[in-house]
Predict the structure.
Amino acid sequence: MKNNDKILLRGGSLFVCIGLLLAWCLIGSYSGVSYVKAVFPGDPQRILQAHLYFLYMGALTLGLRATELPLYWHIKWSMVIGAFTFSGIFLVSAMFPATDPRSDLYMPELKINDIAHYLSRFSFIITTYGFGGAGISLFRYTVSNK
């Protein structure tokens, strides 16, 4: 294994583990477990979204690593950072309902919501750059090596 591929393996395995942990948190939230409800007072649907996105991003990261396609370091790091931040947006919404626009407790006047707005846009851009770059690299590799 190449040394610079460890970031994809570490990131992908961490995303899968977080996704599985969130599955248990989701069960606890729907079952009314008090300490889970204390950590996630927001909408349980946000826990579900975070759970699914962490699993999706973990599968994509590990799948692209399994191709053994040589990727540039900035694409690998964008994949890992983007996958974590993009999935984490839903986790923050579940933990802090004042940041969730769908919540009754949403407070648009909070400065943290302005920050969250721009961070979510940045996350979307970096995730798109990482996974889009990997997808384009994979496609170019298949076309150039007939």
Residues 40 and 112 are 18 Å apart (CA to CA).
